[in-house]
Amino acid sequence: MTTHTTRMLILGSGPAGLTAAIYGARAGLKPILVQGIQPGGQLMTTTDVENYPGFADVIQGPWLMEQMQKQAEHVGTQLMYDTIVEVDVSKRPFRLIGDGGDVYEGDTLVIATGAQAKWLGLDSEEALKGKGVSACATCDGFFYRGKKVAVIGGGNTAVEEALYLTNHSPDVTIIHRRDHFRAEKILQERLFAHKNVTVLWNKEVAEFVDGGGTAGLVALQLRDTVTGELSRLDTDGGFVAIGHHPATELFRGHVELDEDHYIKVETGTTKTNVPGVFACGDVMDKHYRQAVTAAGSGCMAALDAERFLAAEDFKLAEAAE
Predict the structure, then answer these.
(1) How far apart are CA 108 and CA 247, in angstroms?
(2) What pLDDT does residue 193 have?
(3) Residues in CB range of 14: below 8 A, 6 or more apart
(4) What is the pLDDT of residue 54?
(5) Residue 138: pLDDT band by 50, 70, 90 thresholds?
(6) Which of 14, 75, 126, 209 has a CA-to-CA distance to 53 between 20 and 30 Å?
(7) Cis peptide before 93, with omega less than 30 degrees from 0?
(8) Are the CB atoms for 127 and 32 separated by under 8 Å?
(9) Taking a C-beta distance cutoff of 8 angstroms, is the pair 290, 14 a contact?
(10) What positions carry a catalytic annotation?
(11) pLDDT score recorded for residue 207
């Protein structure tokens, strides 16, 4: 077992965590960043990125994260390939334990663990994951070139997934349990204008239908949310796009969470209810969930942590006089 100590400990390696690391390193804090289960975060499963400022042409998500990682290392961040299984933020230095037994201690802690896709919770969904059922169109859409696909949901995620899938499929159906979308108007306009997209209103998935053997998903059994009537939609792929849940399981009971289990922060900052612990990116942001907003909040977290440490150092210097 090895103990690693730092002025700034960062958990999570998406845009938020890596940006915090860049700013922390440039401030001379020699941050340690523990990468977690999914190094690089959700952008590692995103192909085309066209809304990250500074790039006139479409860039690739994994490439962008690789560049951020190299930049963080270049300015002095130590990256650790480990998964944290236990945390103690009751006193400083904060103490995190990896699954191999290594201990990480930080005078400040930046939580940037992100969020994961939500699922419908059906037994048939679980049985067919990776066999026609997915929660990531950009990861798996390529496998459905020329085939029929369906997207379940009604928010930005669902509409974006459906639009992305039109790059591969000539027949995209979006299924929503209400009679209107919650997605941004500009996205809805793009969706309704696309000739390859059909919308089924007031429908929910009752079952993902298994074709047996190696066939995988062959259809969706749908239930009308108004009448209760059942119907069948033949499809080759079903993409669940009903949002995300934050990766905060480790911190329940340690830092304050909101009703949706996102980490609560002081308005306009990344400060949690525990002094010296900061949260940034999708783990505290349920409204925007964009790479650029995650990166921006990572910058904020590093600056908040730096100022916290400066104030603490000043108190210690005063007490020593």
Answers:
(1) 19
(2) 96
(3) 40, 41, 42, 43, 65, 112, 114, 281, 282, 291, 294
(4) 94
(5) confident
(6) 75
(7) yes
(8) no
(9) no
(10) 136, 139-140
(11) 98
User: Which of the two residues, 273 and 135, has the higher pLDDT score?
Assistant: 273
Annotate 18-64 with DSSP letters as a single string: HHHHHHHHHTT---EEE--SSTTGGGGG--EE--STT-SS-EEHHHH
User: Hey, what are 79's tokens?
Assistant: 């990256």
Q: How many helices (H) and strands (E) does the chain have?
A: 7, 19
Among 123, 224, 243, which residue's Cα sits nearest to residue 177?
Answer: 224
Q: How many other CB atoms are found less than 10 A from the CB of residue 19?
A: 28
**Residue 321 to residues 192, 289, 316, 318, Cα–Cα distance (Å):** 70, 47, 9, 5
Comparing C-alpha atoms, which of 273, 268, 285, 287 is closest to residue 12? Answer: 285
- Residues 190, 218 contacting (CB under 8 angstroms): no
Backbone angles phi, psi at 39, to 5 degrees: -55, 130
- The number of beta carbons lying within 10 Å of the beta carbon of residue 309 is 18
pTM, entire model: 0.76
Name, in order, each residue with C-beta under 8 angstroms of 301's C-beta and a sequence gap of 6 or more. Answer: 16, 20, 110, 112, 270, 278, 279, 280
What pLDDT is stored for residue 159 in this prediction?
Answer: 95
User: Which pLDDT tens digit goes with each residue over 13-40?
Assistant: 999 999 999 999 999 999 999 998 777 7
The arithmetic mean of pLDDT across residues 264-288, rounded, is 95
Residue 243's pLDDT band, with cuts at 50, 70 and 90, is confident
254 token code pair: 């340690």
